[in-house]
Write a structure and sequence with these properties.
Rossmann fold, 5-stranded parallel β-sheet, elongated, 409 residues, binds cytidine-5'-triphosphate, 2 domains, 23% strand
Length: 409
Amino acid sequence: MPDRTPAPEVLLGVSGGIAAYKSAELLRRLTESGHGVRVLPTEAALRFVGAATFEALSGRPVTTGVFDDVPDVPHVQLGRAADLVVVAPATADVLARIAHGRSDDLLTASLLTARCPVLLAPAMHTEMWEHPATRDNVALLRSRGTVVLEPASGRLTGADTGKGRLPDPAEIFDLARLLLERPGALPRDLEGRHVVVSAGGTREPLDPVRFLGNRSSGRQGYALARVAAQRGAQVTLVAGHTADLAAPAGVDVVSAPTAAAMEAAVRTSADDADAVVMAAAVADFRPVDAAADKIKRGSAEPPPLRLAQNPDILAGLVRDRPRAEQVIVGFAAETGDADGDVLHHGRAKLGRKGCDLLVVNAVGDGKAFEVGDNAGWLLAADGGEVELTDGSKALLASRVWDAVAARLQ
Ligand code: CTP
């Protein structure tokens, strides 16, 4: 039977800032992943990007005013039909207009008729983002359940750098998809908390050009960091080797290529952390001596590979926990075998590691590694066991932070 589930309907608002050109990439990601998208630019947005770009990429007409197509009453139709509204970029002006219920164009009028989740991705100069008027507008919007993303830091218009940059379109797309999967996934319940997340795989050098590594892409750890930052946490992301992933907005990234470097970075940042999530794939062994020069093929027998144990970072964190309230989360990628299934091995590992929560992923058959989606179980030291149904890595991340936030309260 063909799948008759209707495609989710997204209203993509675009307001008038230089980052408006990035909305075209977000639009493309949304349409290519099967969403129906109607673009609602403001008049100012059309000074940056032409309506033809939005019409061609969405396959739908583009209008800006409430007096276009009056017999169709478009602001009511569009708002009611939407499963999600995303505004990217959201300028200081559009944040103010939305916060105060203005309805002077099709975008803001449709926001008053929409009852679905709303995701606003601000982009503006740092001074505008930090101005008390904008802070108040953001607080008001968040108090009503509107998701207002933290902007990224980096290059702004002209020569300026600072906070206020539009988050990467791939990141906005992931968070938009998360809100469609689970509308309540981004509460501000980690405000005032410091969390540490490790991600990616470590690489243990054999010589200056070779290493022992693994297939971890870092996507799950990045999703955890991204979701925590958007739930209000101060996030330190300790990153091993990853796929080519953009740094999540508002997150401090510390590079840790080897297990030893990762242990040092995690231990330092965990000192004052409320929660530590070890999502990295840490090599259990490293070559005893990394050769200073490249190992040559030569004609003799291949040199023996002598390995030494790496520290178990997670077990060390549990052993030296600075405060009893600190929540420590581990990950386990398991396959079933003759001794038991994935869940059996997960329960045993939770007991061995002594952490508070353990996310157990089934691997093999293309599951978990290097792919976008993830499923498994969330096991708790107090006996709790939640099945994590198939969904995005951001969805899994939001379930992990639910459990962490519940323990921190
Ligand atoms: N981990 C760690 N330090 C290591 C190895 C693993 O902190 N040297 C962490 C991982 O980040 C993960 C958890 O421990 O959160 C479980 O990783 P896994 O590789 O499954 O654990 P191992 O103890 O290596 O178990 P196994 O014998 O199944 O490989």
